[in-house]
Amino acid sequence: MPTAPEFLHLAYPGQEFPAYLYGRASRDPKRKGRSVRSQLDEGRTLCLGNGWPIAGEFEDVDRSASAYARKKRDDFEEMIEGIETGECRVLVAFEASRYYRDLEIYVRLRRICMEADVLLCYNGQVYDLSKSSDRKATARDAVDAESEAESIRERNLRTTRQNASRGGAHGPVPDGYKRRYDPDSGDLVDQVPHPERAGLIAEIFRRAAAAEPLAAICRDLNERGETTHRDKLWQRHHLQALLRNPAYIGHRRHLGVDTGKGLWPPICDDEDFAETFQTVQEILSLPGRQLSPGSEARHLQTGIAGCGECPDEPFLRSVTVRGYTNYNCSARFDVALRENRMDAYVEESVITWLSSQEAVAAFENAAKDDKARKARIRLKILDDQLKDARKKARTLRPGGKGMQLSIDSLADLETELTPQIQKARAEAQPAHVPALLRDLLGKPRPDVDRAWNGKLTLPQRRMVLRMVVTIRLFKASRRGVRTIEPGRIKLSFFGEPGFKPLARSRA
Q1: Of 173, 247, 418, 498, which residue is the least packed, with the fewest Cβ within 10 Å?
Q2: Whole-model pTM above 0.85?
Q3: What percent of the chain has pLDDT over 70?
Q4: Structure letter (DSSP) for residue 230
Q5: How far is 499 from 507, CA to CA, in rounded Å?
Q6: More confident of the two residues 160 and 392
Q7: What angle, rounded to 10 degrees, do the helices at 103-116 and 74-84 form?
Q8: For the chain, what is the total number of helices (H) and then of strands (E)?
Q9: How large a percentage of the chain has pLDDT more than 90?
Q10: With 0-12 CB in 10 A as exposed, 13-18 as middle and 19+ as buried, what is 171?
């Protein structure tokens, strides 16, 4: 049987009881540790009233003790080390669930306390784990604590699904936003753009939409002394994750997909920001875009143009020999052409095509294809199905006994339908023409020429090539021919036979 703290000196006469105090809270959105401090205050009062000297205090704020915990409890591990070295005689916490919500952790702590002859104190009782009855009592409390953790998890998952269905914010705070919490309950009130960081995030999107290389953006931000919201240097993977996040246009992501409009505003109030976001998504999705770390591209067609002689059409690469730079097949070296000649030919052809009505018509026709039409029909059916389910989840059955559809059933249906809706919505969208390309299509030839040679950067010109043309280089009619013979460079423009998205990214 457990012992009351005030009688511990009678049960163990002549002994001192140096104590370790432990406090833990699994949820603390404001990071103020109020709950943990109150736990430790109560422990100090208990030790003072019974003459137990405090040998150490340990606290884990915003740390779970369940089997689903994602963060390590550093103070708990430090406390375990102290117990093993014999620095305390009694371990004090507010209740059993502060120590553990996982039976494996309970068994570990019990074994360590038994080996070090340390007593366990919680709920105003002291347990001697060398006694069978006390082990049985603490084991029962551990089972209850784990069961409560499972119940909490189920409630949290249900709340998350409900929150997703109504478009509420959830998960880590996106860089550029801040959240406001109720000072008493700690519940989330809303999510709004951060007054100091929102402008930086909007700048990153605008630069990425202009096809500026991510490596260049990172370098510039770091040189300016800008850091991520976690005070780390910017790296490409930070930008990749940030630029892919639909939260910045006020949309919620659930189970990895965009589930539609959320309850918070976009990162900036620019009415064209949604188009900027869409442009960035298309740029990041281009299969030929260099995703690996490394130096920025310095040549117009490396990793874009392909070898027409090889069945798998490997990319061309730039090779400089004796002061001359050639485009060579990267696999078998069976084609080669001087870089300046090939660039001049391709750029002249692309500028001519961009200024033509054929280019305008190609993108207009892409918006009217049969696949998009079928996707729009499928999207309407799925949307109607989900709207009907949500209506039933808010409508009582005849007689008022429950809803026509339970929240759990609605959540399961949303989990199934959301990816299908996301896919149909993407397929139903008309072909989006990024601003970078729209400013060139169908414009007078002199205007396109001036923009291409005077306004567009090399990364932007490379981006246009990826979007509008498939380039294949073939062998010359005989060895030693350096001129561009008819048919040696074959260009297939968007909408024409032979055009295809780049099949793989650069290594």
Answers
A1: 498
A2: no
A3: 86
A4: T
A5: 22
A6: 392
A7: 30
A8: 17, 15
A9: 41
A10: exposed
Contact between 283 and 209 (Cβ < 8 Å): yes
Residue 293: pLDDT band (50, 70, 90) is very low
For the beta sheet containing 316-321, the strands, ordered from the edge strand earlier in sequence to the opposite edge, are 316-321, 324-329, 336-338
- Mapped onto helix, strand or coil, the DSSP state of residue 60 is strand
Q: Residue 300 has what DSSP assignment?
A: S
**In 3-state terms, what secondary structure has residue 411?**
helix
Sign of CA pseudo-dihedral 204, 292, 347, 355: negative
Among 162, 220, 227, CA closest to 197:
227
Query: 3-state class of 190 per DSSP?
Result: strand
Task: Compute the distance between CA of residue 446 and CA of residue 448 in angstroms, rounded to an integer.
Answer: 6
Q: CA nearest 361: which of 494, 183, 228? A: 494
Domain boundaries, the chain: 5-152, 198-285, 306-363+435-493, 368-428
Dump the DSSP string for 128-188. Answer: -TTSHHHHHHHHHHHHHHHHHHHHHHHHHHHHHHHHHHHT---SSPPTTEEEEE-TTT--E
Count of C-beta atoms within a 10 Å radius of residue 307: 25
**How far is the C-alpha of 456 from the C-alpha of 435, rounded, in Å?**
12
CATH class for the domain made up of 198-285: alpha beta
Least trusted range by pLDDT, from 297-311, 401-415, 438-452, 455-469: 401-415
Q: Which CATH architecture has domain 5-152?
A: 3-Layer(aba) Sandwich (3.40)
Complete DSSP assignment for 423-490: HHHHHHSPPP--HHHHTTTT--HHHHHHIIIII--HHHHHHHHHHHEEEEE---SSTT--S--TTSEE
Q: Identify the DSSP state of 71.
A: S
H or E element at residue 266: none
Decide: 276 and 263 in contact? Cβ < 8 Å.
Answer: no
Tell me what the pLDDT averaged over the chain comes to: 84
Place of tokens 């269905």: 165
Q: How far apart are CA 59 and CA 74, in angstroms?
A: 9
pLDDT in the model for residue 412: 75
331: left (phi over 0), alpha (psi -120 to 50) or beta: alpha
